[in-house]
Specification:
334 residues, alpha/beta, D-Maltodextrin-Binding Protein, domain 2, 2 domains, 5-stranded mixed β-sheet, 13 helices
Length: 334
């Protein structure tokens, strides 16, 4: 009788220990190690980047190359190309995520598109008014009456200009706007305009390489704005939050790697950017890293409520979105 009790006791004890160890393993980390499907295969996701291959997307490239997405069970497709309606394509199911600005997200939500920013990669709005170094425009208020070239009355360069004008109590009627397409560099160098709107980490670098010294008036110094981040649909966030967290955290891991080792990031990005000019890409990357880092008050990828609120109030005042905007559902911190 005693022998039988011992024989049945030990298998039960082993089974109990195994169950406890499995439970401890499951509870030891609140974030799933992978997001694979039920058959163990990786989860396919995609992100629409909204532009041609460029070193500005290095965090995504590094995350792919170093296997950060694969490690969390994701098979990620990076969709490049200039797309007129990124949000529309995502809502139609063509992309899981898009890389878009916070201002664009608020406009989309004002049109009843249920989109949500799950991580802001550019905490500093990378748009500037650019003038020749010898320009008579010494202060921002001096732009009154001057001709300003910009791609058109749309996008971040236009919103950025409105923000700069607002900061010095001017409106678009106080300057002469000239649509120059994406030829800001030649327009300024040839003297066809007095100033241009461009990206802080792009057009000023091009102009300096062409031998033209310039000064910039950077939007973040005058108006809090939320720039590009990872945006998805409310449905995706609500039903696949673990996958969204995995994607965001793998991307932020890539971003940290780029900041810590830009030389390696350049090498890893080459296969994504056909004909990449290494020297120019290095200049752009060095100019972009401070924008990614922001003020350093928050961790990378963080969405700051105060900045969202300040941007929303400004945009409502400009008639870009309805009055009294509620930003509480426009973003999350994952």
């Amino acid at each position: 009788m005693e022998t039988r009790q011992r024989a049945s006791f030990f298998p039960a004890l082993l089974a109990l220990l195994l169950l406890v160890s499995l439970l401890l393993a499951a509870c030891g980390n609140s974030t799933p190690a992978t997001t694979t499907g039920g058959n163990g295969s990786p989860t396919n996701v995609s992100i629409g980047l909204g532009y041609i291959p460029d070193i500005q997307f290095a965090p995504f490239y590094v995350a792919v190359k170093k296997g950060y997405y694969t490690a969390v069970g994701l098979n990620v497709t990076l969709n490049h190309g200039i797309v007129p309606d990124l949000f529309g394509e995502m809502m139609a199911g063509k992309d899981t995520f898009v890389f878009a600005g916070g201002d664009d997200t608020l406009v989309a939500r004002s049109k009843h598109l249920p989109v949500v920013d799950v991580s802001t990669i550019y905490p500093s709005y990378p748009v500037s008014l650019i003038v020749p170094a010898n320009s008579s425009i010494q202060t921002l208020a001096d732009i009154k009456g001057h001709t300003i070239g910009l791609p058109g009355l749309y996008g971040s360069t236009y919103v950025g200009l409105l923000a700069l004008l607002h900061a010095v109590h001017l409106t678009a009627n106080d300057v002469k706007l000239k649509s120059v397409g994406f030829t800001q560099v030649s327009a300024l160098k040839q003297g066809r305009v007095d100033a241009v709107m461009g990206y802080t980490n792009n057009e000023p670098l091009q102009l300096r390489r062409l031998g033209m010294q310039v000064r910039t008036f950077d939007v973040p110094n005058y108006q809090p704005m939320v720039s590009n981040g990872i945006v998805t649909t409310e449905q995706t966030w609500g039903s696949q939050s673990s996958m969204v967290r995995a994607f965001v955290r793998a991307t932020i891991k890539g971003l940290n790697e780029v900041i810590a080792n830009p030389s390696e990031a350049l090498q890893l990005s080459q296969s994504f950017i056909p004909g990449m000019n290494m020297a120019q890409a290095q200049d752009e990357l060095q100019a972009t890293i401070p924008i990614w880092k922001g003020t350093g008050q928050h961790p990378l990828g963080y969405n700051d409520l105060a900045t969202w609120q300040a941007m929303a109030q400004f945009m409502a005042g400009q008639g870009l979105i309805p009055a009294n905007p509620d930003v509480s559902k426009a973003f999350v911190n994952v």
